Sequence to fold (409 residues):
Amino acid sequence: MGSKRSESSFYQSSGEKKLDSVFLFATGKCNARCAHCFYAVDMDKLRPDLDTEDWKKIARTSKTVQKLWISGGEPTLREDLPEIIEEFYNNNPLKDINLPSNGILGDRIIEWFSRLRTSCPKLNITFGLSLDGFAISHDRQRGVPIFYKAVETLKRVEDTFKDDAHIQTNLATCVTKINLDEIPDFYQWAWGRLGVTSHVCDGARGETREGGIKCVTEEIAQELQDRFAPYYIGYGRRMAARMGGGFVKRYIQKTAYIGLIRSLFAISRSNMTRPTPWGMNCPAGETTLVIDYDGRFRVCEIRDPIGSVKDYGCDTQEIMRSDVMKKEIEMIGHGYTANCWCQHGCWITSALLSNPKMMFRKIQSGYREVKRLAKGMDLKKCADREVLEAIEKKYNLDSAKLKAIGVIT
Ligand code: SF4
Ligand code: SF4
Fold:
C-alpha cells in the first residue's frame, strides 16, 4: 500500500474561475444528537435524500471539480457514497476529498477507504474525525456515548493506512461552553496520543440544536490559537513527513500548512462579531457549489438555498450558468464594496487559492507569526508520558479501554 501522496489541490493556487469545489451534503440522516449541530433543524424536516442517479448526473456534468467536501448528516450512513465519489473521480480532475465522521461506523470507513484506494488510486483522502474533548464532555456534546468508539475508529484508520500517504487524519473539535475549560489539555493530549496529521478547533456555528452553548469570543479564539502555535509547527512537520518527497518539498508543504492555518484564523477572527472584508473576493458560486442532501443548492454554507438541482436536470453546468446563480453572485458583490463577509474557513481557503499573490503573502506572514509565538515551547515535553498520564487521570479516562484500542501501551 506504500505510496506518495498526489499533488494536492489545496496547495495549487490559480487565478482561474471555474467550479473547483463541491460541498456534498450526502444525507440528512444522523446517528448522533449533537448539542452544537447547526444542521439539526434542516435534518429534522426529514426531506428525502437525493438518489444515486441524481448524484451521478451531478458528478458527470461537473467536469472541473478538484475537491469534494463531504458533509451531512453523518456521511457514512449513505451506503452508496463510494459509488458517487467514484463517479466524480472518473469524470473530473478530482484530487482531494474530505470525509468527516463521528466515527461510529468504523468497519464501513475502513471498507470504503480500502475500496477507494483501488478504484481512485490518485485520490487524496482526509478523514476528519469529530472529537470534541475527553469522554464525558465529548459524549455530552454529541448526545451519544461514542468517545471510545470514535477513538478506536481513528486508531484503526491510522493503523490500516499508516504507510499510505494518500490518507491523512484530521481531528475537528467544536468548542462550546460544554468543553471550553478542557480544550488546552485536550489539544495537548490529542497531539501526544492520537498521531493525527492535523487538529482544528472552531466555535459552534449557526443555529445550534441546544441553545446557549456558544461561547467563543474574539478574545477566547485568539488565546486558544496563540496557545496552539507550537502544535501547528508539529502538525506541519507530521503532515509533510506523511506526504513524502524531498527536503525542499517537505519544507514548502510544512510552511504552507502553518502559514495558511494562521492566516485563515486571522481572517476568520476579524469576522466573528462584524463583517470585515477579507482583502480578496469571496469565490462563492464561482468556484464553489453547495448541494444539500435533498438537492437544494447554495453558493456557500451560510447563504440560503437558491434552487433545486432537480429543476436543472441535475446538470451542474446548467446550474452554474443559471440566472439565479448570476443574481446571487451579483448580490454578494466583489471588492471592498461587497455585501457579504463571514468567517467560514472553507471559503476563505477557496478565496486564497483563487488569489496566488495574496496566498503567498499570507503564508509568509502567518508562518512568521506562528514561529514567534512558538519560541521557547518544547513540543517533546508536551508529549511527555507522565504529563499525558496525569491528563488521563484528571479527566477520568479509562486506561484499560485506551490500552485495548492501542492508544496507550
Ligand atoms: S453535528 Fe454532525 S454528527 Fe452531530 S448531529 Fe449534526 S450532523 Fe450529526
Ligand atoms: S462571504 Fe461567507 S457568507 Fe458571504 S458568500 Fe462568501 S462564504 Fe458565503
